[in-house]
Amino acid sequence: MLTTANDNVKTLAGLQELFGSATHDASAAMCRWTDGIITVTLDEVRQVALEEVAVELAIGDEAMTMVVMTLDGQCGGGSIILMFDDMNGRQLAASLLGREVGTDPEWSELEKSALMETGNILGCAYVNALTRLVGMDLRPSPPYFIQDFGASVLQQALMTQAAVGDDLLLCDIAFRRNGGKLDWRVVFVPTPGLQESLERSLHAAPQP
Amino acid sequence: MATTTMSATEETLVGMGQIAAGGPPKKMKAVVGSCIALALYHPRLKRGAMAHIVLPVSAGRDGTPGKFADTAIPKMLELLKELNAPAPCLTAKLAGGAAMFGSSGPLQIGDSNIEAVAQSLRAVGIRVAGQDVGGTRGRRVTFECESGAMIVESAGQPTKTL
Amino acid sequence: MTRRLLVADDAMIIRQIIKDMAIHAGWEVVGEAANGQEAIDRYRELKPDAVTLDLVMPEHDGLHALHGIMAFDPEAKILVVSALEQRGVLKDAIKAGASDFVAKPFDKRNLQATLEQLVPNSST
Q: Which of B3, B5, B16, B36 to mutate to test binding with chain A, by most A CBs within 10 Å of its CB?
């Protein structure tokens, strides 16, 4: 675990590099899935104080459309949350389905499925990359589709980290279209076990 | 380090593990899922405190007092005492403790939070005047010091006033 | 004779994409399944010529389906189509009887070609 401020900075930089490499693979998968339209980039691996999470991530108190996947393995796991406002989520679903944006207030099963599969492809790409980079075995859950307050969903994903400390490690990932940042995001929340395993791998092996 | 307790300004967002306290016209807001927004209120003096409780018990772990049910309530009593609102007349209202990923989903903590808050309130003899807990939806909670009302909004559901 | 395909994936959009591709390539899509147990049940009922099978599915996953289908029909032709691309998992899938693997997101022509290799069209 993190000890001194200097170690902390080094560890965050190492994790940034590790997740940057995994994000590169995830971006390639996302690009294939969206016919070259959408990519993802790692904005930052950061430590955030528990009470500041929603403010730091600028997650307001509005309802959002989200896809959540949990990862599980012997060395810990984590959660991946894709967050969209309703219109952006529907636009992505429509572009994947090659259709006009749906007008019915209720999402159709096919629209939900398009977003969930986006979560599955992104989540599995991270799992595949982390498995390869640090040699740990991680299994993803099927994706869940949730329409609710972003902060409510995020706080449950943070529970395992909150149980052991007041500073939380988050990977903030941005979606891009033609290089421009979109108002969608992905938050990767590793469990303390996975965090420790990743940190150990940073010290044990050359950087990826 | 961010503050963990604070005097509530006009409208205060109470983040995870934080406690706010104050009187009218202050309003305290929190968005909760598995966490619990707990308000203690003195109806005659119109003084209130709200905590955003994350986990059931501290079990000796370090952390801000508002983070755990068993440490949040003593801290809230202390803050209310500083506002000259003594414990005997206080009532409680609470909302949250949901299972956001469904009842069979991962990372379940909501039920334990509800039980721990109820137990901690019983231990100090504070009556629960209203609650909206459990389920699978998140809640946007606003506590008004003027009226003592706790307004609970859930996505796609009618607003409730406790 | 028309080749008969069973499509097993929890994602409706993926089932739709595979169905469209297969029908266009001359297959008859005889059934769909959204989890591993449904895949076994549909296979026993429909006895298709081939199956496309996802690995990560709710309740019962793709490995469960592989074991169940191979126990019923050791000659079954099962193409794993999954975003999970880990050596250990793929080894388990091949050991359980998977004929081949295509990673998601897939190129439709690649998926079609792999299916053709698995069950060649006897009329051409």
A: B16
